[in-house]
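Thanks for the sequence, V.! I ran 3'(2'),5'-bisphosphate nucleotidase CysQ right away. Repeating your input here for the record:
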Amino acid sequence: MDAAADDAALAARLAREAGRLLLDIQAAGKFTGKALGAEGDAAANRLLCAALRAERPDDGLLSEESRDTPERLEKRRVWIVDPVDGTREYGEARTDWAVHVGLAIDGVASVGAVALPGLDLVLRTDKLAPVPTRDGAPRIVISRSRPPAEADRVAAALGAVLVPMGSAGAKAMAVVRGEAEIYLHSGGQFEWDSCAPVAVALAHGLHCSRLDGSPLRYNQADLYMPDLLICRVELAERVLELLAA
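Predicted structure:
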């Protein structure tokens, strides 16, 4: 097994294990709502960080639920994880939440896995399937809580349908799975929100960029990422034109 495949297998295994742990915590019924989200975040973070430190001790590590340190900036390889992407949806026992385990190499989202535990799915960079196609109006997945104003303009021009959905990982994987054609976000995110989803989307041949078309960069000193576009390649030029207008 080459290094990339070995890293992808590790990412997928850990994302699945964290997802199973989160479902077990949910099923136990000891916590609900925000308390469930907090408990799940903490437990999944312990699992992921302990495993990555044990199995990839020379790599950097960045997690939403752990204190950031500057040492990662000196590393070429940095694991970027979100133990529960969509904590609100997890706390509501919905299915549109995810576990992200991504690896950025030289600032590029290169390897990773996104688990959708509520759907018993793990999408990964080393096991690919053709992205399904469909006829009809394009579908744009947008945030449930912060729908971007730009999406209205793009939808009107393309005759597209807006589909509110939970976590960033769930929205990105909806495009990978052929349940939508465009994921457009402008409300601000952080590196852990998109590293693993972007790695998986790129591996499946999708377009991934900022809304101005510039590349997405990871393992930066400033973790804030203002906006994101993931879409089918054949739609990218038109969407970027509309966003620039």
